[in-house]
Specification:
The protein is α/β, with parallel strands linked by helices. The chain has 2 domains: 3-239, Type I PLP-dependent aspartate aminotransferase-like (Major domain) (Aspartate Aminotransferase, domain 2), CATH 3.40.640.10; 242-374, Alpha-Beta Complex (Aspartate Aminotransferase, domain 1). It contains 14 helices and 12 strands. The strands form 2 sheets. The protein has a 7-stranded mixed β-sheet, sandwiched between helices. Strands 8-9-12-11-10 form a 5-stranded mixed β-sheet, with helices on one face. Strand 2, helix 4 and strand 3 (114-118) form a beta-alpha-beta unit. Helix 5 runs parallel beside helix 6 (151-160). The structure holds pyridoxal-5'-phosphate.
Amino acid sequence: MQIKTKCVHSGECPDLLTGGVNTPVYPSTAHKYLNAEDVYYPRYFNTFNQDVIVKKICELEGAENGVIFSSGMAAVTTALLTFLKKGDHIVLQDEIYGGSHAFVDNFCEQFGISFSFVSTDAEAIRAAIRPETRVVYIESPTNPLLSIVDIRKVGAAAKEKNCVSIIDNTFASPINQNPFELGIDVVIHSGTKYLGGHSDLTCGAVVTSDELAEKIRKTATTFGGNLNPLSCYILQRSLKTLSIRVNQQTQNAMLIADFLDNNPNVEKVFYPGLSSHPGNAIAAEQMNGFGAMLSFEIKNPEQSANEFMRKLKLIRPAVSLGGLESTICDPASTSHVKVSAEVRKRQGITDRLLRLSIGIEDAEDLIQDLKQAFEV
Ligand SMILES: Cc1ncc(COP(=O)(O)O)c(C=O)c1O
């Protein structure tokens, strides 16, 4: 099946009792059991609606198995703490989602885990791997500067050095990038973004091999963070339109990136689909589409990022991303507020940077809205 068909049909279990075309929702937390191996319980991550959604996401990513969580951060932290123990070391890109960065900054030390943050570059990542390194953790495109790392090279370096490679694939979504097929061991999503896609659901997913999924599920049964059956169903319904949503969002993003790139009020545009972007060639090779996230820096010193956002009429200032509606935020005071000013500066996240999550509206309406907001 092609991916559009998988979005609609993978994992679906039509209702055998009524003949209904939709998968039923089974809300029970207690299930009859006759022997100890057959215990079904939501926090064991093995109930019917959890299995259905895992199957669908695995087929979209080309992975064997996975675990569905109540948030992206539950997915990130559970996956990391599955593979890291006292004395281990982890290599991460400096440019990753602020919450994941803050988790490593604030908690690894207390678990006796050492870490190295490095630049978004496969060679720098390879060079930072030590004998005690167990995990290599990346994002591509990154949040919020849309940097690109060569995923194949990172996967190969990790494999060669016996490390587990993990990628947060939230920004690309399974429609625009399938890292498991590029040699990465574990793929994470904040399902709150594109997978849910309607800004009304918090969830996370990890997909990987059967072997690693079993390890992650075992850790998860202790940490919790399971998704309830109704949310699983909402996610399942949302995924049926994932490809048409993301394709439309991606097309819109390219048009808006071009508009901003040719606008004298803009200092710089960060979008991997632009030929001027340093990661353009690698992105074209490893992605199916360049995605629907982009960032730009305002040039006019008379206008602050906040003033610009306040002038927008259609594009909403909002912190999350990946919804049907276009949203905008200033990462320095939102997604990356927990990252120290020093790290933000090192990463190039200035106070004049704005991050756009492009929706499915008509691109021309979005361009007109941006145009009028630049007028001071
Ligand atoms: C790239 C990325 N990863 C992970 C997360 C965390 O996801 P959640 O908010 O669902 O916990 C976010 C949230 O913004 C994100 O942007």
